[in-house]
Structure prediction request, 546 residues.
Amino acid sequence: MKYIFVTGGVVSSLGKGLAAASIGTLLEHRGHKVMIQKFDPYLNVDPGTMSPYQHGEVYVLDDGAETDLDLGHYERFTSSKLSRLNSLSSGQVFETVIRNEREGKYLGKTVQYIPHVTDEIQKRLFDVTEANPEVDILMTEIGGTVGDIEGTLFLEALRQFALEVGRENVCFIHVTLLPLVRAAGEIKTKPTQQSVAKLREIGIQPDIIICRTEHDLDEDNRRKIAMFCNVEKKNVVAFRDVEHTIYQCPLDLRRDKIDRLVVDRLGMSDSPTPVLDDWEDFVDRIVHPKESIDIAVVGKYIELQDAYKSIYESLTHAGAHHRTRVNIIRVDAEALESHGPQKVIGQVDGILIPGGFGDRGIEGKIIAAKHARENGIPYFGICLGMQIATIEFARNVCGIEAATSTEFEKNASEPVICLQEEQKGIRDMGGSMRLGLQKSILFAGTKSATLYGDVNEIFERHRHRYEFNSDYQDKLQDCGLIISSVSANEGLVEIIELPDHPYFVAAQFHPEFLSKPNYPHPLFAGFVEAALGNKKRAELEEPVAE
Ligand code: GLN
Prediction:
């Protein structure tokens, strides 16, 4: 078993997660079985209760774990299937240590940071390797920046761990920033030197240094970093800003042969050269599209780059599949309330309403769904976007004017979306959610079934609390709504669609968590195809100038 630890220096948001994921891609293309995990030093037990403003998207795994969005990168860049073991926070570590202490598991000893907390951190490395015996390389990314007080225990744990499993089985990679001081016209290596000095203070000598730069890394700077940071010059790797897409990162990192450096360091020198044809082809489809479409994503955290990360990535995958550039028009739902649909989304080729919580912007989203339904514009609703489509249909097609969700109006008279009886009264924020991979039945003859390739069952990841109210099912179906999928266990509505519309499909689950670069999710692929068709149709209908 071999281990890679990825730490970060100087500043956060360096793309450490992307660097780890990209190394994972390269190692996997060499034929290795790779697993990636994340250690986050914050005290929250998981990011499920953090605001998207704090944390960006919450990424949900098969087993229902609510994790950091970097785990999304890991799953998209590699084929490893992650579980809750792959995400560890200080909150979880302390929760366990304190519980153990209360249960008397430390046999009367004084419970201390070292060894009790650091042992608990190391245990998670052993737990993952034990649970995944087929894996031969485990890569662990440590969140935060070296020098943060809260990260110190994690780094100490890694130092001890490397001694335990043998330093020859461990590769420490430090990702750092080389800022350009414009006035001097110089790239500066000092912050890197200092952050590596911090690591060495703890007793960790990095083996490879990945330098994030806006520019090329010249020989002089490589030599300087090598000398001051005590690594070989060839182990100083440049990681430039990519031009078109994050999927170029593995190819970019390969220019300095990062994967060769890693396998050499880990004594796996017989590892074959990677064959990256499929990845290169995928990147080529993004970089050289033949068509382009505009998709409005109508949400509430629109200004945040990371809040709908997996949705944007899934649109990229589906776009690449159709050799189409997907331009994302981020629309604040509240703008639709004040300006109306024509002005805000009158020109787009498709409308996507993502997941969300709370009632802000709801009416704006309903306006968007109505606009899509009435004008034959492809509509894709995800989770909240499915509930919105249901409410809009109930109000404007079935004439149930007061239709809403009990999430927005506790004592709603027409709760077309509501809590299931058994959820009521659950207090724990996480407790009442439907989370993780669940089986649903697909009904033959529906558009959804066709998109999925006419299978009878699908497995999709969930993260929501409210459900389509079955009391309204008959009425809505009588008005023309098609229910194309229900959950296998309880018959809860999973997908709705409309007939006689180019694409009006909305799912209660989150398809964006299962889309992969060369395997776009069928509902995304179908949506992009429909939007492309919509654009072409609109172009044909445009009056030709005399
Ligand atoms: N707020 C809705 C619910 O809890 C939708 C959740 C979501 O979109 N993830 O059911």
Observations:
- Residues 355-357, 383-384, 407, 463-466 surround glutamine (CB under 6 Å).
